[in-house]
Amino acid sequence: MPARITVTNDQAEMMYVGETPWHGLGTHLDAPSTAEEAIVAAHMDWTVITQPVYTERDKAFVSIENKLAVIREDTGKVFGVFSDRYTPMQNVDAFKFFDTVVGAGEAVYHTAGSFNGGSQVWILARMPEKFDVANDTFEKYILLNNSHDGTKALTMILTGVRVVCWNTNQYALGENKKRNGAEFYARHTPHVMNRANTAQNVLGLSKVYFHNLMLGLERLASKEFARGDLEVLVRELFHLKDDKNFEEQNKIVRYSVDEVNRLFEEGKGNSVAGVRGTAYAALNAVTEYVDYYRPVARKLVTAGVVEMIGKRFQSAWFGSGATLKQNAWDILQRMSKN
Fold first, then answer.
1. Domain identity same for 193 and 253
2. 248 and 181 in one domain?
3. Burial classification of residue 93, based on how many CB atoms lie within 10 Å of its CB (0-12 exposed, 13-18 middle, 19 or more buried)
């Protein structure tokens, strides 16, 4: 079983609609899917259960008070030990929660899947609206992320996906992110399903979020970006010291800088009029580098292609890769305002 995208009985626990995603994993569906179709296609129709936790005392097993183990029922994988107040949200209930928030039939389930043996799950759904920036199309998506191992609360965020590159851009307006209604969190309690109305109200401000996202993208598309500007970006992004040449950096940093420079010129969509030679092209270069070319741990390379892709996929959406994209967005927004 890979450490990232879950594979159970030779089936990757993921589904996608339409165009094959950049990582190439999962079950393909030709037509838009309902919640029920998506969960079956993603092989996520399994449940988690709770069981008492025991300790050995005087050659007898005694249950530990107020503690329960959360276990994936079909594989027996133990996700963790929690307070008995912790209430797991079943995958099917996560889909139901999603439908309740966005309105059943309003969103198209675009991808869904699990990481790390099922300890984390996600759902990405496309909303009907879309907008264009610099001859490029962005669609409106909502991403739900949940964990069964206690590492994350149930989270829903708004995001824009760049169609030409199938690239998830989780740029959320920095410090104003929550105030602009870009995120919703819910702890695992017996009452989490009752918070659908709250999520609806929070995410109902999506027009504000996407309006500001569009303004930010248009700002980048209107900013001419020379090689000198690109050097400023990569120095800050990869924490390079001003008194060092690129050639004096370590191998991974040199590779990263070279790839961003190459993708600024040759990246997907960056030769299009209105994109070429702009700060927007620089943003595309960083995001394509993160999604396709950013190095992964050496042990994962030897472990297999699926595990390596899964690691990069998780990082690009939820980990250090997503942080790198966000940092690039923040730097470029600041440079474009000067």
1. no
2. no
3. middle
Residue 293 has pLDDT above 60, yes or no: yes
**Does some domain include residue 280?**
yes
Nearest to 3 by CA among 265, 312, 222: 312
Among candidate residues 257, 246, 309, the one with its CA nearest the CA of residue 282: 257
pTM equals 0.72
CA distances from 53 to 48, 62, 80, 227, 334 (A): 15, 8, 11, 60, 52
> Whose CA is closest to 318, among 280, 288, 290?
290
What is the dihedral sign for C-alpha 145, 146, 147, 151?
A: positive
pLDDT digits (tens, 9 = 90+) for 155-186: 888 787 765 555 555 554 443 444 444 578 88
The total number of structural domains that make up the chain = 2
Residues 6 or more apart in contact with residue 190 via CB below 8 angstroms: 87
